[in-house]
Description:
The chain is of the alpha/beta class. It folds into two domains: 5-118 and 276-287, Alpha-Beta Complex (Aldehyde Oxidoreductase, domain 3); 119-274, Aldolase class I (TIM Barrel), CATH 3.20.20.70. Helices cover 46% and strands 19% of the residues. The protein contains eleven helices and twelve strands. It has a six-stranded parallel β-sheet. A four-stranded antiparallel β-sheet has the order 3-5-1-12, covered by helices on one side. Strand 8 (194-198), helix 8 (201-210) and strand 9 (214-218) form a beta-alpha-beta unit. Helix 3 packs antiparallel against helix 4. The radius of gyration is 23 Å and the shape is elongated. The two termini are 40 Å apart.
Amino acid sequence: MEINRNKLRVFLINSLAEDVGPGDVTTRLTIGRALYCKGRFMAREPGVLAGIDVVKELFSITSPHTRFRRLIRDGSSFKAGATLAEASGPAAAILAGERLALNILQHLSGIATLTGKYVKSVGKRVKIMDTRKTTPMMRALEKYAVRMGGGVNHRFGLYDQILIKNNHLSLSGLAPAVAIPELVSRARASGLPVEVEVRGVKEAVAGAVAGADIIMLDNMSPARMKQAAEALRKIFGRSKARPQLEASGNMTPERARRAADCGVDRISIGELTHSARALDIALSVERT
């Protein structure tokens, strides 16, 4: 899902209101509104950039007189010490947006950088995907950052893909062997992609035979993932009807590499958005 500019501006305006409130009292009482300055966004460690155009939009809100120039594009790698962008204009406007700009840039670049590590660990064999484990009201931005790191977005919300999870199976009141084909059959009527979460090889086969498009192998050991992949290969061969296999649960780059070796097509990782460490980026300013 692409970032809607109108929604982005509303998000930024509300976020600025949370931080600035009725006004930046420190800046007003110490340097006033007349001073102009130039700021440089500097990387203190290497990483992958995400969010630079969001920051540009932010400074267009703090003052129409602020000029913003990006020096590195989103999705690009950078080294420690690199200047990522420059902003010049009223010092009050730049300082008002400083913390929000850094929060966004550090957070999104952290996600892109972590995603890039996972992508590098598996190469081009499988897709590295995010989940719905995102910060409230920041999902579009966080999923954008995953794409900038070379990852692929999973479903955006509860409305654009069927994902039958363990709780759905439990609440059906049926044994898994019966619940999986029954719920998959009901879900297929939607016309949406259908994915089912399974815990074992027999459940994986049941979901595949029932017509699921994606089988999520939840918290399986590499040995069991390999068994599931081999079981589906025996049934479907190279047929396009074979569902995709998705590994999920407690991933690290090394575990992702082992999962890729087992024959899965995709790996979903909640850590990408809920636990990525913010990258160390700073804003230095000087009078102009």
